[in-house]
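ENTRY TYPE: paired fold submission
RECORD: A
CONTENT: sequence, then structure tokens
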Amino acid sequence: MSEPSKFKALLASGRPLISDGAMGTLLHDRGVKLDTCFDALNIQQPALVAEIHRDYIEAGAQIIQTNTFGANRFKLAQHGLAEKVTEINRAGVDLARKVVEASFKDVLIAGDVGPLGVRLAPFGRVQPEQAFAAFSEQICALTSGQVDLLILETFADLYEIVEAIRAAKTCAPDLPVLASMTFTRDNLTLLGDSPAKVARRIHAAGADVIGINCSGGPNQLLNLLKQMREAVPEGVFSVMPNAGWPQQVEGRIMYPAGPEYFGDYALSFWREGASVIGGCCGTTPTHIASISSTVSKTNPASVQKIEVIRLKKDPSAAEAVALPPTQLASRLQAGKFAIAVEMDPPRGLTTQKLLAGASLLAEAGADVIDVADSPMARMRMSPWAVCELIQRKVGIETTLHFPTRGRNLLRVQGDLLAAHALDVRNVFVVMGDPTSIGDYPDAMDNYDLVPSGLIKLIKQGFNAGLDHSGNEIGQPTHFFVGCALNLNPQDLQGEIKNLRRKLKAGADFILTQPIYDIRHVTEFKQAYEASEGSPLPIPMLVGLLPLASLRHANFLQQEVPGIDIPQTALQQMAAAGEHGAAAGVKLAAELAIQLKELAQGIYIMPAFGRYDHAAEIIEAIQ
């Protein structure tokens, strides 16, 4: 019987297969520093790795995983070993094979593949085809060493694990694939996908076994297993939990769940349909021995469930910290070029994908994230909550879009106080989109203040410690307020008049609608100076909306007021064909470079949530 067929036969035997536990935990416990490339130890210290494999086999593991979790070109590049992908992976397989042969036991070898350690587009810069190539390189190296199955583990990005499955099925179409995801305390992946969605997607992608690993302790994974089985009743499942949530004790990472506890939960995993059971971070051969012993001597009919304990989350109070001036204000006041990028709030509760995009933009060099409020009058999460999350979890400052439409004076002032209490102090005041074009066309569309009136309320009222009625609010706020500007209006003098009112009310900076021709900036500035007798008195960040395709460009040109795309740009988009998005990024980057001499910053509005395109523009001007 071939080894792949043997794995499937063992799965059908009626008892779960026992996999090994943590590799990194034991390597660290045996003196390997955390900044070491653990995968390279297959070559540098093979005896140490072999010893751990041997301990797991003695503990009863029927599957041992190669020490290749991070042996892909991206992670190895961090240690200067990108050219050794094949060598390190082959060494890992050969080492495991020698240990199995020396044990004279019937043990399967799983080629271990972890995530690439980089984000995939649109939340990162690595394209799916690049991820597929990296996974193919590693998996082909593992399969050339004749592994019995592949374990893709600890993935947090559903799109990434699908590329890994595709690479596995391409490199070795007959080899069994166990694909395993990790989850947060909220029982979602880092990008907000539910256990049910993960199970269905992994199953549809062709994985032979649907897995959960890492995450929290056994209790959480039992809950996740139940949800996944409900979503894919016909699926085959694997569970490999951490030894509880890690805790730091006297500078060391400790895991609280003991071996006996693991043995008890192994029966529940089995009862709930797990066909492969093992361990992840913090687990040791002792944990695996407990699982193996419990499973081997238990009659399936006598297995008892353990009820899932649902723990309530402890609420954490938000802290309000006033730190005037804001970082954006300081940058503009110092005459430095500022880069702002707009993001839309999520349509539902999950914010993981938005936070991943914000993290990418922060790493690329953005100075501030602008969070829109119900763009196109579509229902979305309140932006001030999103701003606070981005600032707290990503560490980059935000600008809150604050439309006057749909808000009465009570709500305007209450929302402003809430934003300031959460340290969201950059505010961009706009009229907002009419509800007639959005999800709820019959919704109330009234407003008590026009944008210039709201700017006056903030700058001359709240920032002076007074509300709209002149009552004290306890202490002054410290908002930095922006206003909107159309650089290509039908009524140029009317636009200048509106801007004059906003400046008189106290606006601190300007964000413009997107442009595609640099002359609109120069012509507006000249017209303003001729009308007012002086240059623009406050900083201006010019809007850039990268074109995604010729169709996108034609839509903007024909249907969006104020947009004027030069014929040369339309011709370039037409010539780009299916590479229109790349051409659009190039055009936007060229404009951004020119704007460094004409404005105090740029305001990027990525089309269709392509934050990786915004990152490319930022890199081009830096």
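RECORD: B
CONTENT: sequence, then structure tokens
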Amino acid sequence: MPPPTTTVPIDPAVARVGNVVPPEARTGPQTAAQQVVAPGTTRAPRPPVRPANPLPTVARAASKANPAARRMFSKIMHTESPPTQAFSIVDRLVGSPYANPTIQQAPEFDANARQILEFALDLAEAMFRFGAGALQAETSVIAVTASLGLRNVDVEITNQSIHLNHAPKDQNPVALLRVVRSWTSNYRGLANLHGLVSDIVAGEATRTQAADRLHEILRQPKPFPRWMATAGGGGFTAAFVFFIGGSWLGALLGFLSFILITWIMDTVGRWRVPEFFTIGLGSAVTTAIAMLLWAVHAPISPAVVVAGGIMLLLPSSRFVSAVQDAINGFPVTAAGRFFSSLLIYGAIIAGITAALVAGAMLGMRRLDVANVAQIDYPKPFLIFLVFVAVACVGVFEQTAHSLVLPTAGVALAGYLAYLLAEQFGVGERLTPAVAAVVVGGLGRWVALRMGAPQLVVAVPAVTFLLPGLMIFRAMYGITIDSGDMSVGLIQMFNAFTIILAIAGGVVLGDTVARPFTKGWNTHERRRIRRR
């Protein structure tokens, strides 16, 4: 039997102090929190509390009355941030010449899939050896593996190594590594590799056919014989000596000295001498020949001759590739190429310094590099020299026959942009960068039209912009004229700034031209023709 219920009177004053309101003091409706339950009684169940509507009253009413307002409010509240997840590796092909590849049937993960990975590794190694950048090698591997049926292949590229990893679902992963230890100048081979990848992406070559074509490309001889490539380098040296104000005798001396140092460097290279000492020896020989003829009062300007002789020794393609890798998100590869490029510059500087110091010790007459004797040629002749010089660089870099004249035409357009920037007073440092932007953008347009990567056209076309004379003046001021050391250091800093601006301008021009060349990819044009 339940115990009797006892009612305890509550003093209203005490109840107010304890936050308990007596019944006689209450006014209006009571909430569940205000109800006081005496001991021994059972509290009635609370009604469910409805959550507050997230929409304000005005917005809720407007959404019920106007569907357009409801849609507009949904767009305002919709987040644009995608969910946190890994993106597909094929998305790296956006903006590259291999976008939208034709996906062939996915193979079983057996020896066939491993052969695809090995073929992609051989392809990337060949591209690296021929001078391609990390982005081009990566996009080529992704496009080839995706087109042949392997979509989820991870690619890691450093300065000298390519690492591929494929981990299919419920299968054992396979990882392959290749180290690239040699480089050569073969721009035609690089263009042929670009065409091979385009054929694979277009679905016009199987894995077996692609492997046979890659083997043929690697076995093909270079488009120009060695003697013609050497003569092309000498022709560029002579044309560049004219371009920076040298005489006919200085141009002839530059041509002969380049042939001599090429023979010396090839001979030393067969003895497995490191590249640093080979480049240093070449620059030292060039400087020594110019200084000797200056000592016997030959009518030449040694600074101009040396500046022309060291131009093809500068690692311009490597520096452009390093800047491109840094911008495109390959910091390790960019750092390695930057360091190797700086070593080459150091070798050139060391060779020039050694020859200048030796000449000073032998009592050769002092050279006034601040007032170098330069001939002011007319602008039409300079335009002709740029065209001839870049055509010779194409021969020296072993580019395809069909690309020699287009590359010279791109350089000609860049030089016209250089002259226009000079007229507007852009400045000594920024004017070469403006010309490099034009060369980079137009080089991408021409290269895609000719079925080649942008690097093949753009790098030879910017060679005439490199500040060889400024480098020689800086070295002379640092090593010989100790009172002018600060000026030499400033000139050296300006030279490196101009070189960096040229490399960045080439990459910027390529980036700006991408939207305008969309749909010009080789495999996409073939699909349109088939339709």
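NOTES ON RECORD B: The longest strand covers residues 161-166. Residues 331-361 form the longest helix (31 residues).
STATUS: closed
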